[in-house]
Amino acid sequence: MEYISMTKDQLQAEHEKVSKAFEALKAKNLKLDMSRGKPGKAQLDLVSDILTVLAKPEDCVVDGLDARNYGELAGLKCAREYFAEVLGCKPEECFAGGNASLTLMYDTISKAYTHGLLHSEKPWAKLDKVKFLCPSPGYDRHFKISQSFGMELITIAMTETGPDMDAVEEAVKDPAVKGMWCVPKYSNPEGIIYSAETIDRIAHLKPAASDFLLMWDNAYCVHEFDGDYVPFPDMLSLCREAGNPDMVFEYASTSKITLPGAGVSVMAASVDNMKYMTGLLGIQSISYDKVNQLRHVKYLQNKAHTLELMKKHAAIMKPKFDAVVNTLDKEIAPLGIATWKRPKGGYFVSLDTMDGLAKRTLALCKEAGVVMTGAGATFPYGVDPRDRNIRIAPSLPPVEELETAIDVFCTCLKLAALEKLLAV
Amino acid sequence: MEYISMTKDQLQAEHEKVSKAFEALKAKNLKLDMSRGKPGKAQLDLVSDILTVLAKPEDCVVDGLDARNYGELAGLKCAREYFAEVLGCKPEECFAGGNASLTLMYDTISKAYTHGLLHSEKPWAKLDKVKFLCPSPGYDRHFKISQSFGMELITIAMTETGPDMDAVEEAVKDPAVKGMWCVPKYSNPEGIIYSAETIDRIAHLKPAASDFLLMWDNAYCVHEFDGDYVPFPDMLSLCREAGNPDMVFEYASTSKITLPGAGVSVMAASVDNMKYMTGLLGIQSISYDKVNQLRHVKYLQNKAHTLELMKKHAAIMKPKFDAVVNTLDKEIAPLGIATWKRPKGGYFVSLDTMDGLAKRTLALCKEAGVVMTGAGATFPYGVDPRDRNIRIAPSLPPVEELETAIDVFCTCLKLAALEKLLAV
Predict the structure, then answer these.
(1) Which of A35, A417, B45, B218: CA 20 to 30 A from A396?
(2) In the beta sheet, which residues pair with residue A340?
(3) Pair B365, B393: CB distance under 8 Å
């Protein structure tokens, strides 16, 4: 029975029941973490062979180049080729970096501020106002980069097919709007794959800003955990064909393919952008860790072999997502107090409570020893205008712990809803 | 006989002889590189065991933390402890980063521009003018970072004991002077160790700028190749004692201890600076490569063990420096056309020709197939006002190749001098 249809007596009886359950869970002194998209230990153990794939000096030489020494700012040729195959672009459009694509994203924005981009009239630091489009719910670390530089963050609603493109097309008429954050495949947190139409409309944008920066974070490009690999178009080609060759910077990494703290990142962009950016990046670095790049290429080999590995990750991930979504389907769906999606890839389940319940639900979770991503984190400035979106990250805990954690979560969600309905 | 004392006939005879030697060398179609401070293959092979020091999942866990996963922005505890011992500061003052200290230096300056430092009134990007002190000859990549941000580079003369401190103390009275580059031990390129008095005067500077930034690049902190390890004071303590606790940022890395492209870097600063900078660095990175940090700590163990390894590097390096300096002593010293020092650590030999000969000498070297660091590179804007300083980097070529290269160099230097003396 939906809570909304219950009488006050029924709600009070339910509140008493759920409160008891909550107290019982609290008494367990749990310490569980569903806060971040961290792979679990079983996933890390999957790839242990990468640790020793380079064992001798001669293993470190590739294409006549010693990966151990300085040089090759844009990365090993074989690493650029590997990423080009995975992303569907060209090797010369790929810059293989260090362990974090987030750092490459930050570097791009930072350089826009200090030096300007290829088509900037001046560095963004010299502008009175810079605005950036933030499809929301979205990735908190993206928004925090923009916020850190003092940009005005413009919330764009997410739809089933990606960002609300009518709103985006309208917004980019403002020359102060300098770019947009996108996680186009298995969006963080909703797990939405942008539709072909959405992608086409993005590629064909006619921004007033000549240096509009499309931040295309393809973080989950091969990260299906339910079903087969879903092909995805190369945004560099689409932008080029649409007459916007230099608008897009794409990012990805092996953080959730091999080791989260010790993977290899990639930035892909037009050859003109690559030339411009390597000119700037060459001031801050002689080269990134090519030994780790070579380790990765030898271990991952190519896209087909990578997809085989991703099937093994999927076998670990799917039961965790099932545990979350099946429990929500069973425990919460009948009560009518929240909605969510069943994603097929990525790292999150996005849940919307009734308006105004996200903060309270997560405060209760914390009380019961379950840490979740902070309420509001998926919106600009950390403020969810309807206080309803909750990002659930099921990847880190083992299934048994996860089942307890999601049990806690459902109890807290019910309690928050009952408190609200009883207070009316 | 010194060239300067030769008659025109003697000079012409010598010119003929040296020209022939030059043509003979050119005919060998050499391709030798003394341009950068790159370790040679024998040095890289020294540390091959580091490749497999982490082989199994359980090897990757330290202090209860799995180095493979996300987290620990400031680096593994054991890595911070390792660097603190090497540098003589405290673990909580150390930030263990990625593969390049250059990147940490760039990040510090970049954040001064975009966000300001701890004691900045505003971000440097908002200032009309930023000036930076560049003791010269110095490291080209330092100067290029400053230049890239549009700073005005102020040349400070280097003396036998470090930067000319009278000039430095005068210069910092200008509030637009925001900092200074230093390589205090085995300075690049001269191999000078700053004297205790110089260091003390630097620590006691009273800059007009409240956010004066002392860039203390301790790149060669354990890099003796001739004689025993030379202890060096902890600049963080000295600045703290002098009432300038937040003035200094120190940098170092294992690039020339283990693998140049795949080492670990460190930034050391006061705890207040550390808190401020990690707040900013946390926007651009979740964490650096902790697997590589752990690899390094397990392999290098501690300072004493590191110094043992450095003795092995020294055994490879010393014959190369001897080859260069002994040849110069034998071939060039009697001619009175250049001066140089015999360093005991670091990666370079710095040579001053007679005024106006550096460019021509290096152009001749290039013609004969020997690549050297570009003339002027050791001065701000790449312009050596007396066109005389040449940085020789003997580390990369094997000794046999090096002997040929230095032979070419001496021949070119003689030829350039003779051309000049005959043209008078």
Answers:
(1) A417
(2) A351
(3) no
Q: Do B103 and A45 touch (CB under 8 A)?
A: no
Cβ of B55 and A51 within 8 Å?
yes
**Contact assessment for residue B51 and residue B408, using Cβ atoms and an 8 Å cutoff:** no
What is the pLDDT confidence band of residue B36, given thresholds at 50, 70 and 90?
confident
Q: How far apart are CA B424 and CA B414, in angstroms?
A: 16
The answer to whether the CB atoms of B67 and A262 lie below 8 A apart is yes
- pLDDT (tens digit, 9 = 90+) per residue, B256-276? 999 999 999 999 999 999 999
pTM: 0.97
Mean pLDDT over the full length of chain A: 97
The three-state DSSP-derived secondary structure of chain A is CCHHHCCHHHHHHHHHHHHHHHHHHHCCCCCEEECCCCCCHHHHHHCHHHHHCCCCHHHHEECCEECCCCCCCCCCHHHHHHHHHHHCCCHHHEEECCCCHHHHHHHHHHHHHHCCCCCCCCCHHHCCCCEEEEEECCCHHHHHHHHHCCCEEEEEEEECCEECHHHHHHHCCCCCEEEEEECCCCCCCCCCCCCHHHHHHHHCCCCCCCCCEEEEECCCCCCECCCCCCCCCCHHHHHHHCCCCCCEEEEEECCCCCCCCCCCEEEECCHHHHHHHHHHHHHHCCCCCHHHHHHHHHHHCCHHHHHHHHHHHHHHHHHHHHHHHHHHHHHHHHHCCEEECCCCECCCEEEEECCCCHHHHHHHHHHCCEEECCCCCCCHHHCCCCCCEEEECCCCCCHHHHHHHHHHHHHHHHHHHHHHHHHC
Which two tokens mark B165? 């401190």
Tell me: the pLDDT tens digits for A79-137? Answer: 999 999 999 999 999 999 999 999 999 999 999 999 999 999 999 999 999 999 999 99
DSSP annotation string for B235-253: HHHHHHHTT-TTSEEEEEE
Copy the structure tokens of residue A197: 């139409």
Residues A382-396 have pLDDT tens digits of 999 999 999 999 999
| Contacting residues of B for A286, CB less than 8 Å apart | 100, 102, 141, 261
CB contacts, 8 Å: B279 with chain A? none
Answer yes or no: do A289 and B98 touch at CB < 8 A: yes
Residue A259 pLDDT class (50, 70, 90 cuts)? very high
Of the partner residues A144, A145, A289, the one whose CB lies closest to the CB of residue B289: A289
Q: Do A261 and B69 touch (CB under 8 A)?
A: yes
Q: How far is A34 from chain B (nearest CA, A)?
A: 14
Query: Residue B209 has which token pair?
Result: 């700028």
Within 8 A of B36 by CB-CB distance, chain A residues are 70
Taking contacts as CB-CB distances below 8 angstroms, the residues of chain A near B255 are: 70
ipTM of the complex: 0.97
Is A424 a residue whose pLDDT tops 80? Answer: no
Chain A positions touching B283 (Cβ under 8 A) are 106, 141, 144-145, 148
